[in-house]
Every structure is written in structure tokens, then in C-alpha cells.
TrEMBL record:
Keywords: Metal-binding, Transcription, Transcription regulation, Zinc, Zinc-finger. The keyword Transcription applies. It comes from the Bacteria. This is Putative zinc-finger. One of its GO terms (molecular function) is zinc ion binding. Pfam families: zf-HC2. Residues 16-49 form the Putative zinc-finger domain.
Length: 92
């Protein structure tokens, strides 16, 4: 995870790429309070990042409905790992 000072734009707010990299931690309630507030504030004003969060939540919901054994373990591992990559995708 990059330091907050490097993840901020000129206005002092978190940049989209930093926010995208923190969405999984946000959903897992693994962010410190200060960082969580910065991410939440960014999401409130950024439709692109809010859209990514909505997609992530929808993906989690759909995958949570799958029965054990439907998706091979290596595929689940690869999917899980893709959400923890150091370089998140560009916002739409």
C-alpha cells in the first residue's frame, strides 16, 4: 500500500488510482479510520470510483451465491488475487 502523501492529488484528496487500490480493504473493514474517511469522502464525489465499488460489491454478492466446488479452487485464488494487485485498473 502506498503512503498517503504519495496517494494524494494537488487538492490533498486521494487520487482515483489510490482509492481503487483501497476498495478491497474498505470492504473488509481493514482501513484505519483516517484513511477510511478519505476514501469515503472521495467515493462521495467520484462517480467513476463509486461505480468500481458497486461492481466489486456485485461481484462479491454473485460469487457468494456459488455452491462450494462449482468454481475450481485455482480460479477462485486467481480472482481473489486480482483484487489485491498493487496496480489497480484505470477508472472508466
Amino acid at each position: 500500500m502506498e503512503p498517503a502523501r504519495e496517494a494524494r492529488g494537488a487538492s490533498g484528496e486521494l487520487a482515483c488510482d489510490a482509492v481503487l487500490g483501497l476498495l478491497t480493504d474498505l470492504l473488509e473493514e481493514a482501513l484505519p479510520a483516517g484513511r477510511r474517511e478519505l476514501v469515503t469522502a472521495h467515493l462521495a464525489g467520484c462517480p467513476a470510483c463509486s461505480g468500481w465499488l458497486a461492481q466489486l460489491r456485485a461481484t462479491i454478492e454473485v460469487l457468494g451465491c456459488l455452491r462450494d466446488g462449482v468454481v475450481p479452487a485455482p480460479a477462485l485464488t486467481a480472482l481473489r488475487d486480482s483484487f489485491h494487485t498493487p496496480d489497480p485498473p484505470e477508472p472508466p
